[in-house]
Design goal:
2 strands; two-stranded antiparallel ribbon; alpha+beta
């Protein structure tokens, strides 16, 4: 990979994360905590391992803790520790 390709990929990733952050109000969709451009993660609603796609409609903004805890679960079945009484409906 060239430096130019790496730079382009980094810019595309940053733009995707900025879009997700803006759409979510810079809040984790799972726990509601504040996320920042340097801490936001892209979570797949349907995990890639479960045949989830890479299309934008399959991605949501999550904090790193929730994304790690969710792992390969589908979004509809994941209940974050900070919201134990509700299920996430995306």
């Amino acid at each position: 990979m060239t430096d130019q390709t790496t730079s382009r990929s980094a810019k595309l990733r940053a733009n995707r994360k900025a879009r997700l952050g803006s759409e979510s109000g810079w809040l984790c969709v799972y726990c509601g905590c504040r996320i920042w451009p340097h801490t936001i993660t892209e979570d797949h609603i349907v995990p890639r391992i479960a045949a989830g796609s890479r299309i934008p409609d399959n991605r949501i903004a999550a904090c790193q803790d929730c994304n790690v805890r969710k792992g390969h679960k589908r979004t509809m079945t994941f209940v974050p520790a900070s919201r134990p009484a509700e299920r996430i409906n995306v």
